[in-house]
Design a protein that fits this description.
435 residues, mainly alpha, Growth Hormone, Chain: A, 2 domains, 20 helices, 0% strand, disordered N terminus
């Protein structure tokens, strides 16, 4: 038993499941919930896009996590806050002003989740030796995906079935959020018991001057000679996806008279939230294998096409509005597989940018810009769709892929980066105190 607890298998899967679930609740499940509760696409896209903000600005308070308390305490405490926030959402939904109240609580959830990300990633680096960090990186990714399946698939399916059974959509979603809050109570108790207590997990730096290291980190990041192309890539590579992502679920749920596909909530949970996520995971695993074999530079262009061209699936679905559920599920699986394969390039690009003394902090900055690149386009996507309709909206999404191709042409990646041999040489960087 002790060997299992010390190996990482007892806590890494549950830790990254706990990291993924609140994110997918804030970014995706909330979209489905508000759509089924009668909110407009404009309001859904605008207000749920603002929930990206904590992930955008999380580098701003990362020094607080470094200087005050241990990563272990931050992890457990943030999971407690997340669980409380989920329970509070459940209480707000049956009220008259459910939208305003639930959005406010989801903000709390988002800030707690972003802080949990900082602490969990830092704890992972401190609790494992370098070779074991590499060994568990696939496990981290897999259980983050399991959280996505749980949120987009299982929770959405349960909400749909409960709504059909009770005839009360608000009650159904309240029960789903109550269940999710209870799950986090279990996770808090589990991690309080099972998380190791590494000697390296202690406050770092001078608490009287918490900004000193923070400022040095940012200075090193923004003084890179290629910083312009880096920021352009981080902000614009996903410009098309950021707009499509907010409207895919409303498109699947809206009746055909409104240009949608008229699926039920349960069908969306199966096709997009389960089959789609499985395809996304398969594409991501294949993308990682491809980069490990030939390097990121070799696969940048094929993966750029893989991210963007499958958006043609939505153009077809919007024009044809097929009735065949299997056809729709297969189309969504193709789009998600292509995206999962291509998105591997984006993740590896951030790892390349983050190499060096401040690896963890620079990776957090990259993820902040990634979130900003998703937040801003998503905010106006609902208004565009309601103005032009779904058919023209998805044509606009295809046009919006052009910036992604342009920024891919700007970046210059060392040919050997990402190959297995190069990764083994670079791995010791993760063991430095700054990481």
């Amino acid at each position: 038993m002790g060997r299992i607890l010390s190996s990482g298998w007892s806590w890494i899967p549950s830790l990254y499941f706990a990291q993924g679930l609140p994110y997918v609740v804030a970014m995706t499940v909330s979209v489905v919930m508000y759509k089924t509760l009668g909110m407009s696409n404009t309001d859904i896209a605008l207000y749920t896009s603002w929930l990206y903000l904590p992930w955008v600005i999380k580098p701003l308070w990362s020094p607080i996590v470094e200087v005050y308390g241990t990563k272990r305490r931050w992890v457990v405490f943030m999971q407690f806050i997340i669980g409380a926030a989920l329970a509070l959402v459940a209480l707000t939904l049956p009220t008259t002003h459910f939208f305003q109240l639930s959005i406010a609580v989801l903000w709390l959830l988002a800030f707690a989740s972003a802080t949990h990300d900082i602490a969990a990633d830092g704890f992972y680096l401190l609790a494992l030796e370098t070779h074991r960090q590499a060994a568990f990186v696939g496990v981290r990714s897999a259980f983050y995906r399991v959280a996505s399946v749980t949120g987009q698939g299982v929770l959405v399916f349960i909400a749909g079935e409960l709504a059909d059974f009770t005839g009360d959509t608000a009650f159904a979603w309240s029960m789903v959020f109550a269940i999710s809050g209870g799950l986090f109570v279990v996770l808090v108790a589990w991690h309080q018991w099972v998380l190791p207590r590494p000697a390296a997990d202690r406050p770092t730096g001078d608490p009287r001057h918490p900004l000193k290291e923070f400022l040095s980190t940012f200075e090193a990041y923004f003084r890179r000679p290629d910083i312009v192309s880096i920021l352009a890539f981080l902000l614009l590579f996903r410009f098309a996806e950021a707009q499509a992502l907010k409207l895919v679920t409303p498109f699947l749920l809206d009746p055909k008279s409104s240009g949608g596909l008229g699926l039920t909530t349960a069908q969306v949970g199966i096709a997009y939230g389960t089959i789609g996520i499985v395809a996304l995971t398969a594409g991501g695993l294949l993308g990682g294998v491809a980069i490990a074999r030939n390097g990121l530079d070799r696969w940048m262009w094929p993966m750029t096409f893989a991210v963007h061209m499958p958006n043609l699936v939505f153009v077809y679905l919007a024009l044809a509005q097929p009735d065949n559920f299997l056809l729709i599920a297969v189309a969504l699986a193709i789009e998600q597989f292509g995206y999962g394969f291509g998105f591997s390039a984006y993740l590896m690009f951030m790892m390349w940018v983050a190499e060096g003394r401040w690896r963890t902090a620079h990776y957090a900055i990259c993820t902040g810009f990634m979130a900003l690149g998703m937040m801003l386009p998503g905010m106006f996507s609902g208004q565009i769709q309601e103005t032009v309709g779904y058919q023209h909206f998805f044509l606009w999404v295809m046009l919006s892929t052009i910036p992604g191709f342009l920024v891919a042409a700007l970046v210059r990646i060392p040919p050997e980066f990402g190959k297995k041999r190069a990764v083994r040489q670079a791995a010791p960087v993760e063991a430095t105190p700054e990481a």
